[in-house]
Each structure stands twice: as C-alpha cells, then as structure tokens.
Write a structure and sequence with these properties.
single chain, 324 residues, Alpha-Beta Plaits, Rossmann fold, 2 domains, 8 helices, 14 strands
Amino acid sequence: MNYLETKVTFDHPDPGTAADLVAGVFFEFELQGVVIEDPGLEPPADDGAEDAVARPTHHAVLGYLPMDERLERRCKSIEQGLSETADRTGLVWRIRYRELDEQNWAESWKAFFWPQRIGRRIVVKPSWREFAPERGDLVLDLDPGMAFGTGTHPTTALCIELIEDHLAPGDSLLDVGTGSGILMLAAAKLGAGRVAGGDRDELAVRIAAENLRRNEVRAESVCLAQGLLAQPFRGRFDLVVANILTQVILELIEDVPRLLEPEGIFLCSGIIEENRSLVLSRLMQSGFEIVDTRGREGWVAIAARWPAGDPDRPPAGPRARNRI
C-alpha cells in the first residue's frame, strides 16, 4: 500500500504547544503516525548512521495516511481541523502532500525514532537501534510498525510514568486502544502479573502481539483482542489505561468502573490542557477520586481511583480470577 505524507509547517509564538495542537488534529482524524520537526533541537548523534537526520529549518508536524477510499475525506477533515485550530490560536499553517510507497514510508519515520529514557527505569529502544543499558534499566525493544506508540510523545511518556508509580508487582492491567502495545509492555517489565489490551485496528493488535513476543512476555499472562474501546473485555483489573483523546476518554468513563477492582486506578492521557477541567469534572461526577494529575508540553494525564465497596456492582472476587 502507498502512503500520503502529510506535512504541516507552522508559525506560532509558542511552537511547542502549537506542535502538540497540530499533532492532536492528526490523531483525531486517525493519521497513522506523527513526526515533530523542531529546528531548535539537535538531531541525535550516531556516528556513521546512514539515516542521520539533518536539523530541520522550520517547525512542522508530519504524518502518514494510507491511500485508500478514506483518503479524500480524511484530508478534508484534517484541513478543517487545522483551520479551526488556527481560528482559536492564531496558528499560521501550510500543508504539503507527498506520495510514498510502503518501503519509503517505513524508512521516513524510522529515521526519527531513537532510544528514549522515560520515568525512573524504562528505556524505549527501537528494534533497529543499538543501545547499551545501564544497571537497573528496563528496556522495551519496540517496533511500532504502522501502529501508534513509540514513547516519543508526551502523552505516552506520561502514561508510562503513571504506570511506574501506580502499578504494584502482580497487578493486572488493561490498555484500551493499545496501538503498538508499548503500555502493556511497560507494565509487564514493571512486574504486572497479567496484561491485556485491545484496539479496533487488526493490524495494531498483530503489531502489539509481535512486540510482546519480541520482549519475551509470557504468553499465558497476555490477552489481546480486536474491538471498539473496552467492549471486548470482561472481569476486573487493578489498572485500566487509555492513552487516546479527550472525547473518547469521556465516553469511556461510564464503562471503565465495571472493569476495575475495588480501589482500582484509571489512567487516562491524550488530554490537551484546555480540556483538563472537563475530564476531571466528569471523573468526579462519575464517582472517581483524583489521585494524580500531570502535565507536559500542553498535554495532561490523570490517575483516578474507583472507590472500594461500590454497592452498584457485584463482588469482584479474588484478583487472580480476572476473566477476559
């Protein structure tokens, strides 16, 4: 399959926030993968690397659309979303399209993906890069393929940090919209007893399964399913994670309690700063207790606890009896 490279070059007084807003438009309209170009950042050093990246000359966000029957509608939706963002924020933007075949598509984004430290112990390492771990490092060997999730975006990094802080050894975790499986993998490396994940995209489920195999996560402790949001899952988990978008998180809030153990934690990310109060309010109205809120580069992640002894739900039973 061929792909359409979609490059948005922009000008704004706060380029970091603007880049996240443009990336948010891309994610909302299902753009496959994003790369953020920042002329103020030094390119990663890797002497002799054939795919060394030159310093960009302008701020830009790039993404890649499969050239299928949805292409025209998606392009129009992205341009409309950018126009609406510009009306709110004063963003000045230009868009450029370029057709790529699948091999060139893969090489174009791989050049931007390098090992990255997240939190206290996690290192996300692309499967095609070399990396010498330090003592105590937990290395996630990752090939995201055409699925979302490389650890380079603040929303993913915030989720991994929250998992590191709120996951106890032996806990169970469900990742809604798992993409590349990076959050399941992080949880497994941090000692989760069982990890599950779902995605509506069949290809994402296959990629997540391959990443878990690559990192030797025990098959008996893993469950992956294709489906819409949390619908494919039953039983209770100690943590439910959703790194998606504000509107999807708002839809999930009513469904998540049936999947949480008493005092279980719902971790949600992918929320832009201007929607922070909306999500916090909806969580509290639904009975959650807010236990952690973090922001970075215009994005917000929230940890919320479901209370123990909820009279509206049947007993969960022992944690070891989670069923999927």
